[in-house]
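Hey, resending since the last one bounced:
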Amino acid sequence: MRTLFAIAVALLLPAATAGTAQSAPRSKTIGKEAPAKKPGEPAPAREWEGPYGGVVPGGGGAPPEQKPPPAGLQAITWTGFRLHEGGGSEVFLQLTGSVTYQQKTKGRRILVTLDKTVVPLRNNLRPVIAGSFRGTPVERFRVKLLGKDQARLEISLRRKSAHTVALNAQGQFTFLVVTFPPAGRAK
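The structure tokens again:
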């Protein structure tokens, strides 16, 4: 038994037993390489560069791989938010196909209930906080499951706002898009 242990240690730690210098540990950073920090200073913030690689209506990346929904049901494959360059914003859901939906507005909440819809990835059930973006009435939104075959998009607003809800088929996916006009243009 001791012999096996000694062999394992000798194989796993040859650099340490031979006295050779080891290279410095490598750090992983995403985006621009962060400058070295001085002792006692907080770590510098990372700078993100490059285009957004996620899903957007009208183009963009593909959603993560997911198992197909059961027969007769559609799946929400992506939840998203974006600001428009000319002002305004939108909350969108990418779906595997067309669905029927009902929309209600209660005070500063918009509720869109989707029939025959499932959410295979738990990540698509997480709340999205949009309140720090300027020019949008959207504070946050999330998708909630209502039983086995119904989902609800719940949007919380900072202030009441005009909006439109539409389904748009694009390639192999369908987008449910809730659009908010630029501030000051709402009727």
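The radius of gyration is 24 Å.

Sorry for the duplicate.
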